[in-house]
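On clarity, I found the account of how folds are encoded harder to follow than it need be. Since the whole study asks how a given chain folds, the encoding of that fold should be made plain. For the editor and my fellow referees, an illustration may be useful. An entry of this sort, consisting of the sequence and the corresponding backbone structure tokens, reads as follows:

:::
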Amino acid sequence: MKIRTSQWYEVKVRTSEQGEEGMLKDKTTPYVVEACTFSDAEEIAIEEASDYTAGAIEVADIKKARYIDVFFSEDTTDDRWYKTTLQHVIVNEKSGKEKMVNAHHLVQASSLQKAVKNIEKAMQGSMLDYTIANIAETAFLDVIIKKVSEDDSETE
């Protein structure tokens, strides 16, 4: 399981594709993109979409994602993405009170059951106690990782 912590953006790209009857049909495809800025995320998503279409490409929506980590599976059959909310118990050192904190993650899996297994695998080395509060399949086509240049170093 590969875990990546970064700044993520949800980008919806609208493309025009030729339908079965020869008519142009708009299609909106959602991606999650690793980027430093909105403009970087937009550029990366357009570049990705241009590999799959020859028609017009437009960014229909872009927003910062609240994911702390993205859990990438090494299993090639894991082709879906699940939004996950993990709840952690945090203890205030001064007051001694416990507080529940939500952390949002994306996990790659082939089914809901496999997503739970992948979360457990990713959290195996963590010292934090957690509860899976929510898990839901997304419509994301792909998670696009920022290309690493020779000057950059990849963090995992």
